[in-house]
Amino acid sequence: MSVPLRCPGPDGWDRHGRTPAALRWDARWRSGGISAAEARAAVGRFLERVRATGRVAVPERLAQDAQLVVGELITNVVQHAPGLCGLGVEVRPDSGQVEISVWDTSPVPPTRRPPDGRRVGGHGMEIVGAVCRAVTVTALPSSGKRVTACLAPRAPGPTDAG
């Protein structure tokens, strides 16, 4: 899996000069070509590179949440979707929002089951829904689906204090 960081022009703005351009990373692979751990690590490296640009602050908590979401979504892909798959991550400098998109060849949308502390497994979409501001599932015209999860920086809570 490659980890290219696509950046905007030298001034850091979109080509129309209106809004700060997003920083993006994406990868594609065939079934079995990636594990959830590899995807989490790649996203962690990408977010570190975003921080290094100095264009946007990515709080550690947001980076951890993004890696958690990627791990859960990629686990679903690995378990349920054969064929070509992809992962994209975008950070918006104006809001600090992180958008994660995972697409695969399975037309079956992921389901969010009701919480059940006795169940082993099957909590992925419950976790994703709990940490994300929004989660959408879009059917792809050629077959398959795209799951998009949006995370936004959160206000520090009592457990975040040092």
Automatic annotation (TrEMBL):
Top-level lineage group: Bacteria
Family matches, as Pfam families: HATPase_c_2 (PF13581)
Presence of the UniProt keyword Nucleotide-binding in the record: yes
Keywords (A to Z) from UniProt: ATP-binding, Kinase, Nucleotide-binding, Serine/threonine-protein kinase, Transferase
Coiled-coil zones: none
Ranges for domain Histidine kinase/HSP90-like ATPase: 39-148
InterPro entries reported in the protein's UniProt record: Anti-sigma-factor_SerPK (IPR050267), HATPase_C_sf (IPR036890), HATPase_dom (IPR003594)
Gene Ontology molecular function, alphabetical: ATP binding
SUPFAM superfamilies: ATPase domain of HSP90 chaperone/DNA topoisomerase II/histidine kinase
PANTHER family documented for this protein: ANTI-SIGMA-F FACTOR RSBW, ANTI-SIGMA-F FACTOR RSBW-RELATED
Name this polypeptide is given: ATP-binding protein
